[in-house]
Amino acid sequence: MAESTKTALITGGSKGIGYGVAVVLIKEGIRVAITSRSQKSADEAATELNKIKEGFAIGIESDVRSLESQQNAVKVVLEKWGQLDYVVANAGVGHFASIYELTPEQWQETIDINLTGVFYSAKASLDALKETKGYFINISSLAGTNFFPDGTAYNASKFGLVGFSQAMMMDVRKDGIKVTTIMPGSVATEFANHQPSEKDAWKIQPEDIGQMVSDLIKMPARTLPSKVEVRPAVPGK
Q1: What is the pTM of this model?
Q2: Mean local confidence (pLDDT), 76-100
Q3: PROSITE patterns from the xrefs (predicted)?
């Protein structure tokens, strides 16, 4: 595929789903900035991504809990590449405990990262996306419609994110900006301190979500899949 001038910003892109999305987009010829709360982690991931196509990845230290930090990440992308076409709001955290055991700190961190963090990512990037008629893709979860025990914080953040995303989509599509919410089920990542192994072969793989992002941005301009649920084709045993 011919190289394009398109650029993407992926929050939480140093591992897991965010990294898988970055791999696919770079293979498609799209330049990618990945963020992490650790500059070291961001740089290490960008180094690996640049082995796919040299100069196509940069790492940015950024915390979605800070609007200023998100604004700086967008500024870095614009200074580096001159435009921003795609934002993948992927950064997330999971604290799973009964309401009896869930701490106020765990609740606040979950809401701050999974919900408020996406709001900050949107506020920081919408002006740039308006210039390119760009795309804002939220990585939510099937937990945004399916509640479960020990999920008070996580369910609240993801139910809220689905509602936020759909309302945001209605606000910005008049400006030519697309918004899609991807709601994955089980994905083989390090999320919630899990260590992926061969036992996770039945799960969605991070690059599967990357392929979905790639497919979405290739949709005809007139067509918008506003919410996509995705789950393993065969459940684990």
Answers
A1: 0.94
A2: 97
A3: ADH_SHORT
